[in-house]
Amino acid sequence: EIVAAVENAFSQAPQPLRGRRVLVTSGPTYEPIDPVRYIANRSSGRQGHAIAGALAQLGAEVTLVSGPVNLPDPARVNVVRVETAREMLQAVEAGLPCDAAIFVAAVADWRAASPYASKIKKEGSGAPTITFEENPDILATIGHSDRRPRLVVGFAAETDNLLRNAQAKLERKRADAIVANDVSAVGGVMGGLDNTVHLITKAGVEDWPRMTKDEVAERLADWIAVKLGDGG
Amino acid sequence: EIVAAVENAFSQAPQPLRGRRVLVTSGPTYEPIDPVRYIANRSSGRQGHAIAGALAQLGAEVTLVSGPVNLPDPARVNVVRVETAREMLQAVEAGLPCDAAIFVAAVADWRAASPYASKIKKEGSGAPTITFEENPDILATIGHSDRRPRLVVGFAAETDNLLRNAQAKLERKRADAIVANDVSAVGGVMGGLDNTVHLITKAGVEDWPRMTKDEVAERLADWIAVKLGDGG
């Protein structure tokens, strides 16, 4: 009965994204150094998972490509689990074509060029030399793809020159919007429940007030519904 | 009433470790590269947390020094949260003197020599050069300390030559026992609920059958109770 009531509530809510396919990435990526060690970005996945859930609530058919997180799957979302940046790109490309792609994951920019097959021994040899190489830029790759979704949104975690860095990314990566959030010690909301973000588009900058990640997700999902509604 | 019944069950259970102070470490450590990136070892913290809980159930006064994990605090345990290896060592030293110390945490062997205060920018500069330096060896430091607890137990995650590596550690780190577990792809139980371990002491090697991490914890807690009972 509860399930039926919930289903009912869903079906009566406005569903402006019904019939739309949306891809969302979330969480960190783990880049192995050896079988036990890895490099990662700090990311709880809370913001990305909330956005996937909010889009599904508006009726979208959502695929969530997620790195390692400790979060329940959002309701009515198709979750694809990955670990590395290259696996994430592959899963995103497998999810095309779609109407919109929202890249929230904190993808590691670099990976170890040659991960060790066995655990690096500490004894005797001192600290290891690890050579890094650049990971694919998933946002830029999809932004420039000939299968580019109509709407492409990136997230940017910045500690300095937040808006200037985000505006540069908008151009370079062919995104329609960048959601910039401040992860400096001052703005520091990483891993927490709140977020303070700026929505940067060609039209300018919207400063959103500090709100919960769920509220950011709902507001962004509404914005996406309007964008996909325009001349869709 | 349920609480009362549980309390009652606790007080009626045998409490061979009543009055004993035991330190347990658990989880990974995170070693920052910059404000958003870090190096870590894979560790869910499940085994260390289970051991802390099992020792508390036997009546010990348990301090659990834990790196970043997504686990509930075990019942009746004093939890101290840390992030880096150096913070973990500091918290362990603050917990001395104690009767036994069980080092289950997957401590990162290296840290970035000079973490960046701002997020390293990807653009233009290519992959960064990161110089690593060795972290303190917490097990060896406490094993050789003049405040060494009477019983010191280390954990060793190995992919190769499991027993030989663990036996070498026993000597070098002045541990009374090493619990060795195989984290190679074959034995691979990291992050899972089961564990296959070997208990290595001067007396020899005990191969324990594959069992749940809770069962490993109970068996090890019983072993510790016997050891602390001998000539205590």
UniProtKB/TrEMBL annotation, chains A, B:
Which residues hold CTP? Answer: D109, K119, P136, D137, I138, L139, F155, K169, K173
- Please name the GO terms that the record assigns under molecular function: FMN binding; metal ion binding; phosphopantothenate--cysteine ligase activity; phosphopantothenoylcysteine decarboxylase activity
Instruction: Kindly state which reaction or reactions the protein catalyses.
Output: (R)-4'-phosphopantothenate + L-cysteine + CTP = N-[(R)-4-phosphopantothenoyl]-L-cysteine + CMP + diphosphate + H(+); N-[(R)-4-phosphopantothenoyl]-L-cysteine + H(+) = (R)-4'-phosphopantetheine + CO2
Q: Which cofactor does it need?
A: Mg(2+); FMN
Record-annotated DNA/pantothenate metabolism flavoprotein C-terminal domain positions: 17-225
Taxonomic superkingdom: Bacteria
Q: How is the cofactor bound?
A: Binds 1 FMN per subunit.
Q: Which species does this protein come from?
A: Fulvimarina pelagi HTCC2506
User: What family is this?
Assistant: In the N-terminal section; belongs to the HFCD (homo-oligomeric flavin containing Cys decarboxylase) superfamily. In the C-terminal section; belongs to the PPC synthetase family.
The entry's keywords: Decarboxylase, Flavoprotein, FMN, Ligase, Lyase, Magnesium, Metal-binding, Multifunctional enzyme
The organism's lineage is:
Bacteria, Pseudomonadati, Pseudomonadota, Alphaproteobacteria, Hyphomicrobiales
What's the protein here called?
Coenzyme A biosynthesis bifunctional protein CoaBC
User: Would the keyword Magnesium be found if you checked this record's keyword annotation?
Assistant: yes
- Supply one GO CC term from the record: phosphopantothenoylcysteine decarboxylase complex
Q: Does the keyword Magnesium apply?
A: yes
- Region annotated Phosphopantothenate--cysteine ligase, chain positions: 22-232
